[in-house]
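Example 3.2
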Amino acid sequence: MSKNTICLWYNHDAEDAARFYAEVFPNSSVSAVRRAPSDFPGGKQGDALVVEFTVCGIPCIGLNGGPLFPQTEAFSFQIATEDQAETDRYWNAIVGNGGAGSACGWCEDRWGLNWQITPRALTEAMAAGGAEAKRAFDAMMTMKKIDVAAIEAARRG
């Protein structure tokens, strides 16, 4: 096990979430499902309690802790994409599987976890600074899913 692992709190469906992430994202997998040795708040003996998984190479634990602590935008995975096709694929997988689109490339999956689907074109535009970054930023602020062609056009002015 990694020395530092992200622990994500789920109501009761960490295993479903982890399996979905493993199907959608490269270098992702479910490595273990640990069952509760006895009843616990929000679950019963034998229920999945802890799910060990990886998302794009990042080790995670999904803890089925019950409804006490729902996910918020204070934590999100940021997925860098190479082009519009990859951006669309991840966005559509999350939003089309019971999730919801938000603003500026953010979306929420059906388990309440937040994602930033961020094309490298946007990251590079912001890194350029100055007027180029401002134009790209202003364009991004009008979007839900990021439109790579619109960001690139904004960079050019």
